[in-house]
């Protein structure tokens, strides 16, 4: 298929790369020149704008940081028309960014007015999952759109869920990431407690993995440097899933809670911890660097 891919960051670049490997004809666009060069060397074509990338595309995929970028891309910004007004034909549009359900519904509705199906399809699985092509996609939108998207998503992911109508993918993703934020900060707290009481972090990790404290953060994303080969913690927390993006997702959870009068005490605590960690200068580090909050003064 002819696919336009917009947003080649930590997640988008390996996802686009897997589409190329699966034999799709992929045209990429990112604001960062270097990101496009890397994809070009893997067999993608590069464009000078999102509009150019989308020219003739049957499927458009975006992987951008936040709702402001997604709305800007599709609906336009500063009075400029957005991509929905620039595309010819009726491409299927799949946005894999994590944004608010309201933003997803607003863009989907604007697309529907133009006869275009726009799906929210946020992902879980991290950069490791993006590279391995084992991401979980959590899709919101009509069944027909989901059925059309599935074969494309299968080139990048292993578990493809239809969560419900527009916005439902984001609701499920936000619930998941609120739990992840809680688990990562809790894991960091437990590890620091053990180490301050004489435990080796690797020994403690192995014990908790095989015990009732085992969880995704501990099992596959250990936040203590040196415990897990290849983890963000073992490369000075470079790359991965940025603290600022986790803080954004916990903010989205907070907005959902306000709107639905839900009580999220643990999620609120996690949001405050990641906001504090970001304010202390760690916004551009992987979110597992929350470990450092508990190591101050060592
Ligand atoms: P990132 O910051 O690494 O990459 C975002 C990319 O988008 C950058 O390369 C940036 O230049 C580009 N960009 C921004 N605005 C653009 C525009 N208007 N046109 C073209 N390119 C533009 O972010 P990421 O880690 O790849 O995350 C992307 C999304 O996926 C976020 O919503 C994040 O919450 C979500 N997510 C990330 C992870 C992870 O582990 N990193 C996991 C699951 C979900």
TrEMBL record:
<dbReference type="InterPro" id="IPR015815">
    <property type="entry name" value="HIBADH-related"/>
</dbReference>
<protein>
    <recommendedName>
        <fullName>3-hydroxyisobutyrate dehydrogenase</fullName>
        <ecNumber>1.1.1.31</ecNumber>
    </recommendedName>
</protein>
<dbReference type="InterPro" id="IPR006115">
    <property type="entry name" value="6PGDH_NADP-bd"/>
</dbReference>
<comment type="pathway">
    <text>Amino-acid degradation; L-valine degradation.</text>
</comment>
<feature type="domain" description="6-phosphogluconate dehydrogenase NADP-binding">
    <location>
        <begin position="2"/>
        <end position="164"/>
    </location>
</feature>
<dbReference type="InterPro" id="IPR036291">
    <property type="entry name" value="NAD(P)-bd_dom_sf"/>
</dbReference>
<dbReference type="Pfam" id="PF14833">
    <property type="entry name" value="NAD_binding_11"/>
</dbReference>
<keyword id="KW-0560">Oxidoreductase</keyword>
<dbReference type="InterPro" id="IPR011548">
    <property type="entry name" value="HIBADH"/>
</dbReference>
<dbReference type="InterPro" id="IPR008927">
    <property type="entry name" value="6-PGluconate_DH-like_C_sf"/>
</dbReference>
<dbReference type="GO" id="GO:0008442">
    <property type="term" value="F:3-hydroxyisobutyrate dehydrogenase activity"/>
</dbReference>
<dbReference type="InterPro" id="IPR002204">
    <property type="entry name" value="3-OH-isobutyrate_DH-rel_CS"/>
</dbReference>
<dbReference type="Pfam" id="PF03446">
    <property type="entry name" value="NAD_binding_2"/>
</dbReference>
<keyword id="KW-0101">Branched-chain amino acid catabolism</keyword>
<feature type="domain" description="3-hydroxyisobutyrate dehydrogenase-like NAD-binding">
    <location>
        <begin position="167"/>
        <end position="293"/>
    </location>
</feature>
<dbReference type="InterPro" id="IPR013328">
    <property type="entry name" value="6PGD_dom2"/>
</dbReference>
<keyword id="KW-0520">NAD</keyword>
<comment type="similarity">
    <text>Belongs to the HIBADH-related family.</text>
</comment>
<dbReference type="InterPro" id="IPR029154">
    <property type="entry name" value="HIBADH-like_NADP-bd"/>
</dbReference>
